[in-house]
Amino acid sequence: MLTTIDELRNWSNEQHAAGLTVGFVPTMGALHEGHLSLVKAANERCDKTVVSVFVNPAQFAPNEDFHKYPRPLENDLKVLKSAGAPEVFVPSVAEMYPDGFDASVHIGGVSQPFEGQFRPVHFSGVATVVLKLFNAGQADIAFFGQKDYQQVCVVRKMVSDLNVPVKIAVCPIVREPDGLAMSSRNRYLSAEHRRQAVVLSRSLAEAERLISVKKEQKVKNIVAAMTKTICTDTDFTVDYAAVADPETLRELDIIDPLKHSAVVILLAAKIGTTRLIDNAVIEL
Question: Were both Cys, which of 50, 128, 149, 195 would link to 279 (CB 3.0–4.6 Å)?
Answer without folding.
Answer: 149
